[in-house]
Each structure stands twice: as structure tokens, then as C-alpha cells.
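User: Second chain of the day. Same drill as before.
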Amino acid sequence: MLSGKVIESGPRASTQHVVRVGALLVAVSAGTNVPVPLLLVHQQQLGLTDEQTAGLFGVYAIGLIPAVLVAGAMTDRWGARRVVLTAGLVAALISTGFALAGSSVVALFALRAVQGGAAGAVFVSASVWIQQLLATRGPGRGARVAAVCMSGGFAGGSLVAGLWGEWWPWPVLAPYLIHAGACALIAWWTAVGVPAARVASDGSRAMRGPVIRSGARRRALLVVAPPALFVFGFPATAINAVPLVVGLPVAAVAVTGGLAALTLGSGAVVSTWQARLRERAVPMAGLLGAIGMALTAAATVNESAKLLLVPAVIALGSGGGLALSGGLARIPDVVAPGRAGTATAGFYAIAYLGFGIPILVTRATAHLAPEFSFLILGGFCVVVWLAQRPRPTFTV
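Assistant: Same format as last time:
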């Protein structure tokens, strides 16, 4: 396998290739959220506490954060194809492992951590790959496509697993096996349909240079990095902290899956607004997050306010989707030549710290009323919104 930066040429070939790479990104994304509604089934069967259940959700980030950094470097050196296909097959094997884990809590934690690593590698490399393939289609196009594929996969995996886990047989077996088969099939389809990329330049030279281009470090630190926390922090709060802290009165597994699908589906739809909002996309993400946190806080007050969770998760999911597409679209403005993989990996590493928010919320409820935890998070969103707003210019 030759090393180097990959470039696919030709608009027709790029379109065909994006469909297949995007399909694998959807499949892997779906697999990461198959366990989410099923965590309530595991909690009931294994007698897990709320903190253990939140930990089982969040341990995903422990495997993911180091994996995305390694995947980013590998993408810069060898190209995205090898990373995406290998990690996609690993994701299929992990779903098989979930189906066979049975009642072993240790196995579930280990599989969830490794799942984060495989998924993170695909997210980074596929995002870079899609942006390279669509580089001639206008700024931000690749970022929007990657965001829609990821958010759509997240939503689909949650919805199917939630419905199956609530009403259909083998709730902690069938959803995992279905995903494993689908993911393996799509990985094969991508492998045979997307040829090996040609070498454009020696990637090892770029690896010795800076990740952020000269003069753009302040923008990377203050403009690109902070909103990354919203990417998964908002959806994680909606689909993990809400069922545990706020509580769901009926059909908790199915409702959790439905709320997760609504959250992430909203993110998939709203992420396409980045083309119109441009620099306002990330500030709008912060504003939507503040609204979502405020509505969630209101829903914790009494049972009659639980319906507020519907607009709350829509706002949180929309904020996460805009933060993803808007954040990815900002990376080309700050990255040094040949370091797109590493820069994208850094963005995702920060983003996945957001998976720790549900753990913080569940621990905070031991000392604070739940609504105050959500209001504090909403206050942070307001601060970022105010700091990220484009400043008006005046001419004399």
C-alpha cells in the first residue's frame, strides 16, 4: 500500500464514491446508537444503577478519543480508504460481540469502549474522505454531507433498536446481529466499489509539519474548538441524561429510542442549514442548546410538563447538528496542508468529551435539583453563543 494524500478525480466518480463511503458512515453511526435505548434493558436485567448506566453510555468516549487521534495521523499518512474499511469491519464484529456478551457487565463496558475506537476512526477518515471527494462542489459541501450521514445513522440506529427492544423478541440479541450483518455487507460494497486512491504526494513529509497553519492558531483555539463540545454533548444529554434524570412514564425503552431518533434526526436535517447560515451556524447551535436545556429543566418540574421534552430534544439535536456541520466547515480555514486528518481528529476528540455531560448531570443530582443542572448547562451555551456571534461591521 503506497502512502500519501489521496485525491479522487472526476465529478461522476466522486458522486458514486461518496454514496458508498457515506453509506458506510451511516452504518457505523447507526451501530454506535443501537446500544443506547437497549441500555435500559441491560439496566433492568443486570440491576445497574443510574450512574453505571450513564457510565456504560459514556465509556464509549474513552475508546474513541485516543482512536480518533491515531486515525487522523493514519489518514494523513496513508489515506482514508484503509482506515475506513478496516474500522468498518471492526464495528461489525463489535456488534456481534454485544449480541454474545450476555450478562457480563465487564464485557459490555469493554465492547462499548472498543466500539468508540472503531467508530471514531471511521468518523474521522470518512469525514476527510467525503470532503476530499466533494472539494470541487463548493465550500462546506463535504462537511454537510458527512454531518447528515452521521446524524442520520445515529437516528436510525436508535429508532430501530428502541422499537425492537420494547416490543419484539430477543431485544439484546437481534438488533446487534442485524447491524453486524448490514455493516459488514456495506463495508464489502464500499471496498469493491471504491478503487484504491492514487498517490498525490508523500504524506510522511506533512506529518512533520504543524497541524494548524501559521496565523490561524487563535482562530482554531477560540472559534473552532469550543463549539465542538456541542456536537455530541447536546445529543448525549437528550438521549441519556433525560431518561435517567427526568424519567419517562411509559414504554421507556421505545420512548428513549424515539427521543433519540427525534434528537439525531433533527440534527441531520438542520445540519444542512450550514450552507445558508455560514458563520452564523455555530452561534445558532449555542442558542438552540440554551433553549433545549431550558425546556428540559422545565420538564423536570412536574409530570404535566413532560411534553416539553419533545421540543427540548429537537432543539438539542438541531444544535448538535449545526455544531457538527459548522465546525467541520471551519477546519479548512485553519488547517495546514496535508494535515486535514489530524485536524479533524482533534475536532472529534474535543467533541466526544461531550459524552461525559450525562455522567456529570447524574452525579450533580445528588447535590442539586435536576433543573439546576440543566440551567447551568444552558448558561454555558449562552456564553458560547454570545462569544461566537459575528460582529457587525460599520463603515463611515
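The longest strand covers residues 198-201.

User: Great, on to the next one.
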